[in-house]
């Protein structure tokens, strides 16, 4: 165990800061660092280090860190990379608590830089000195006015303290996000750029923010986790502390690019695993970093959604903006609320019956522009059991600023989020200013407001999940039979599935045509023949699957027509029927644990990519929620005269497979049941194909 000189809260809120390479010239890194510290009112001891100056910014300068006559909590280093090691050694020798290393070109710039970074880390570790970075932009601590950074966002007149805590692997992106937040009037607690994470890493600061009283919401920009196994437990701890966590994870498009032996491995890559773990632990994954910050702001400054799955009210004085906003809802997975009778009755007091519908256009009715009418409508929305939030897409109109200023109070009284969108450009600035003055969030684009609402929806779904009991093992699920390591045959993989109660086709392995005919007669016609070999991944690609063989002659003909490749045997199988084909899969993601997948199955799975992934084991409700998120769901539910399918059977099979994944853990490389045929309600499901790769028992 390393004995650290300083705890994280002192790194973030140092009593004294030494700026190595301090300068009067704000064109230099060290000049900007000291300038921003002074400009934003750093209240602690400021210690410029520069061998060539007696004073900097009117403060006494020291020639080296070793000559500073008082304890230094944090040293900020924005020095040329060639000088870095010596400077860090000096800091270690001088008893500095932590170094924030802005200097780049370390592990971010190839092997030589990485070796230097390792040296720097060794020096720090040996001394118990902490490191932030290298290659970071430092820390903005708005709560304590400690801006330990050279980021240009600190040119802003004022950085507003508030409840958003942020950790970012990109310093430039963090600066940009703070500037986006400030434009919208958001306030921040601490923003930490972790850079190359040589020592302190994203999870350390996530852990810190969870306990930080100034932080109410946490936003993360993640490129790669140093230790993925720490992440999910921290997310659960944040949820228990009532602090929503939002994240953007870079590298989505690269995920799943690697060639894989199973469909599950190619479809449930590490990004899908990350997404699944976030959903399970109640964190909100966003695509767009700017949306993440605005959603964090909404969670910080607006009431939370009462629960997931409620509808929205859209209200404004422009028919055009209300209707186009409503049109965009389905694409964001959102819907208009169904107004209760009490809400309708209230609305009728202010407008003709013909206007009493959502979205609500207040422009065309007599008294619609009166403040009383607007307030009454808003209040009735917020008392409606099916309206979780209100979207107000304001267009140009007289007295915009005064009208906008009504909403903060209405939102506060109503206790539900109001997403105010100032859709106009410069002419809307007075309204924006009024909202900033009232400390109320606003958005500039309707699409952003809907993306934010989707994030709020995910946050509230995550909160609801926290109350669920742990998954329970269904009767007859396991234990696993003894199996060889490596790639299993279809028959072996099916025996594993069957041991957990997943229904599989009956089948017999035959070595010649006579045996195949005898097996077919025992199973009952029609049958399927499959040439099987451990070496073959996709049987039908090679013409090895012969379906729907009605009699002995057809079996003989199919046997003779099998391609001439080395086979372990020919599997004779009952011919199963179903209305839809699903893929069920399982794998183990290092750091994240066992996962299951369900999707539209058959030979086109990789083309359709209609899949959902979740951590194993599952509750039946989790399995059903995954099915509902599939594009295939309307087919399962029954469309256009087609019967509703046996969703309960699919849920049961998925839950059972999830226990295989949970029990085998890291032994399970991957497993596919593709397809499982699903019949109409009451007809059940059956896996007609299975494959798996596992590490042997002793692995
Ligand atoms: P592979 O995936 O290795 O190409 P499968 O065993 O999945 O081979 O067979 C290919 C397709 O044939 C399946 O997607 C399914 O549509 C159909 N099929 C396979 N076995 C059966 C069976 N026993 N009953 C009905 N259809 C089957
Ligand atoms: Mg298959």
Automatic annotation (TrEMBL):
Keywords for this protein: ATP-binding, Ligase, Nucleotide-binding, Tricarboxylic acid cycle
Source organism, top-level taxon: Bacteria
SUPFAM superfamilies for the chain: Glutathione synthetase ATP-binding domain-like, NAD(P)-binding Rossmann-fold domains, Succinyl-CoA synthetase domains
Keyword Transit peptide in record: no
GO MF assignments: ATP binding; ligase activity; metal ion binding
Domain ATP-grasp intervals: 494-530
UniProt-annotated stretches for the region Disordered: 462-485
GO process terms (BP): tricarboxylic acid cycle
Biased composition range(s): Pro residues: 468-482
InterPro entries to which the protein is assigned, alphabetical: ATP-grasp, ATP_grasp_subdomain_1, CoA-bd, NAD(P)-bd_dom_sf, Succ_CoA_lig_flav_dom, Succinyl-CoA_synth-like
UniProt name for this protein: Acetate--CoA ligase family protein
Naturally occurring in which organism (per UniProt): Siccirubricoccus deserti
């Amino acid at each position: 165990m390393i004995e650290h000189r300083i705890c994280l809260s002192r790194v973030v809120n140092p009593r004294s800061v030494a700026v190595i390479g301090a300068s009067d010239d704000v064109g230099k890194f060290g000049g900007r660092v000291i300038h921003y510290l002074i400009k934003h009112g750093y209240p602690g001891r400021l210690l410029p280090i520069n061998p060539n100056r007696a004073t900097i910014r009117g403060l006494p300068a020291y020639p080296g860190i070793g000559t500073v006559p008082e304890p230094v909590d944090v040293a900020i280093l924005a020095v040329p990379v060639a000088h870095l090691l010596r400077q860090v050694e000096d800091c270690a020798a001088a008893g500095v608590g932590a170094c924030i290393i802005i200097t780049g070109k370390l592990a971010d710039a190839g092997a030589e830089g990485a070796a230097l970074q390792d040296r720097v880390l060794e020096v720090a570790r040996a001394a118990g000195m902490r490191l932030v970075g290298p290659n970071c932009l430092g820390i903005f601590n708005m709560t304590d006015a400690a801006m330990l950074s050279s980021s240009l966002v600190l040119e802003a007149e004022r950085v507003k303290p508030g409840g958003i805590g942020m950790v970012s692997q990109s310093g430039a992106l963090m600066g940009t996000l703070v500037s986006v937040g400030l434009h919208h009037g958001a306030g921040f607690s601490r923003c930490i750029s972790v850079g190359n994470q040589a020592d302190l890493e994203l999870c350390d600061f996530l852990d810190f923010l969870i306990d930080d009283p100034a932080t109410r919401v946490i936003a993360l920009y993640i490129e790669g986790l140093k230790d993925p196994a720490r992440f999910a437990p921290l997310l659960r701890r944040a949820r228990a502390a009532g602090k929503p966590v939002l994240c953007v994870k870079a590298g989505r498009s690269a995920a799943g690019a690697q060639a894989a032996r199973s469909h599950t491995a190619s479809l449930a890559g590490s990004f899908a695993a990350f997404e699944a773990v976030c959903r399970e632990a109640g964190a909100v994954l966003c695509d767009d970093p700017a949306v993440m910050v605005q959603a964090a702001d909404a969670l910080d400054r607006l009431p939370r959604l009462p629960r997931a799955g409620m509808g929205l009210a859209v209200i404004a004085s422009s028919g055009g903006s209300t209707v186009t906003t409503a049109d965009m809802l389905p694409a964001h997975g959102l819907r208009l609320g169904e107004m209760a009778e009490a809400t309708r009755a209230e609305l009728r007091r202010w407008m003709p019956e013909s206007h009493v519908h959502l979205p609500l256009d207040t422009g065309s009715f007599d008294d619609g522009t009166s403040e009383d009418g607007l307030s009454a409508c808003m209040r009735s929305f917020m008392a409606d059991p099916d309206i979780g939030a209100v979207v107000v897409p304001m267009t140009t109109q007289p007295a915009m600023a005064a009208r906008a200023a009504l909403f903060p109070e209405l939102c506060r009284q109503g206790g539900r989020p109001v997403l105010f969108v100032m859709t106009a450009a410069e002419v809307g600035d007075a309204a924006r200013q009024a909202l900033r003055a009232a400390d109320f969030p606003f958005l500039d684009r309707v699409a952003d407001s809907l993306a934010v609402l989707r994030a709020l929806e995910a946050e509230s779904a995550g909160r609801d999940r926290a109350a669920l009991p742990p998954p329970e093992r269904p009767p007859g699920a396991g234990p696993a039979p003894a199996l060889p390591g490596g790639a299993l045959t279809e028959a072996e993989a099916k025996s594993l599935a069957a041991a957990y109660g997943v229904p599989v086709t009956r089948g017999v392995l035959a070595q010649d045509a006579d045996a195949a005919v005898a097996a077919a007669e025992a199973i009952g016609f029609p049958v399927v023949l499959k040439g099987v070999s451990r070496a073959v991944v996709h049987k039908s690609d090679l013409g090895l699957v012969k379906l729907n063989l009605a009699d002995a002659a057809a079996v003989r003909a199919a046997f003779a027509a099998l391609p001439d490749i080395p086979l372990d045997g020919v599997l004779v199988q009952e011919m199963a029927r179903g209305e839809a084909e699903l893929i069920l899969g399982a794998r183990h993601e290092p750091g994240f644990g066992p996962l299951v997948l369900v999707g539209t199955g058959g030979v086109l799975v990789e083309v359709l990519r209609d899949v959902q992934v979740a951590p194993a084991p599952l509750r039946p409700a989790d399995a059903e929620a995954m099915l509902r998120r599939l594009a295939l769901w309307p087919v399962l539910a029954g469309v256009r005269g087609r019967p509703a399918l046996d969703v309960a059977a699919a849920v049961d099979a998925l839950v059972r497979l999830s226990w295989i994944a949970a029990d085998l853990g890291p032994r399970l490389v991957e497993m596919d049941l593709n397809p499982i045929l699903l019949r109409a309600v009451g007809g059940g499901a059956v896996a007609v194909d299975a494959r798996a790769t596992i590490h042997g028992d002793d692995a």
